[in-house]
Amino acid sequence: MKKKERIVLQETLEKLSSMMELLTDSQKEELRECMSIQRFKKNEILYRDGEVPQQFHCLINGKIKIYKDGIGGKTQIIRVLKPSENFGYRAYFANQNYVTCAAAFEASTVCLIPMDTIYRWMQENNSFCMFFVKLLSVELGNSDQRTVNLTQKHIRGRLAEALIFLRDNYGLEEDDATLSIYLSREDLANMSNMTTSNAIRTLSAFASERIIAIDGKKIKIIDSDSLEKINKNG
After folding, report:
1. Which tens digits make up the pLDDT trace of 205-231?
2. pLDDT score recorded for residue 6
3. What is the CA radius of gyration of the chain?
């Protein structure tokens, strides 16, 4: 195995550590044999709405978006994932086809594990089964909260929430102010359940109020307190 491949493998096992520690020794060995590591280019599709779920996904590095194409071709970004997060398994447990799509925001590396293997381990291992019960429960709670926020908050509150989410999940650059993820205005609008034109106008308003500064796709948060207040007040 080449040095680069060994580094990726070690990084993969580290990202899977919270799950691996619940597996038996034989299951850990089986995991090493059955998992695969795939690289996806920017904007490349991982899976589409309507496809049959077959793989458990764990993001190793990069950024992935989970989204849904709705009425009139309008896209709603449901979740943006960061490394170590798992996805693409709910539909399998529900005996459904995928109802969302997944695509890479940027070049990303993903670990894939066959879902039939995951399901068998759950039947054999109660602790491993409870890992998924907790995972699905947390995601359901987050989904419920996001539904309320997207339907009850005004445009300013929704955009403030999106910017805070990006800050908290992807961090800031060395200046401790600029978001380390660069989204198009369309993607930011799709995260916030608004039109692109409304996202542009609201960003401009935040900039004129000295809450943020904009440089192309780069967004610098100048006044975190004001942004938090807008998010809280909705």
Report:
1. 999 999 999 988 889 999 999 999 999
2. 65
3. 19
Q: Determine how many CB atoms are found less than 10 A away from the CB of residue 102.
A: 24
pLDDT digits (tens, 9 = 90+) for 175-197: 989 998 888 889 889 888 888 99
Amino acid at the residue 183: L
End-to-end CA, the chain: 52
Q: Where residue 103 falls among pLDDT bands split at 50, 70, 90? A: very high
Task: Give the chain as a DSSP string.
Answer: --HHHHHHHHHHHHHTHHHHTTS-HHHHHHHHHH-EEEEE-TT-EEE-TTPPP-EEEEEEES-EEEEEE-GGG-EEEEEEE-TT-EES-HHHHTT---SSEEEESSSEEEEEEEHHHHHHHHHH-HHHHHHHHHHHHHHHHHHHHHHHHHHHS-HHHHHHHHHHHHHHHH-B-TTSSBBS----HHHHHHHHTS-HHHHHHHHHHHHHTTSEEEETTEEEES-HHHHHHHHHH-
Residue 16, CB half-sphere, CA atoms under 13 Å: how many? 23
DSSP reduced 3-state for 16: coil
Q: What is the value of pTM for the model shown?
A: 0.82
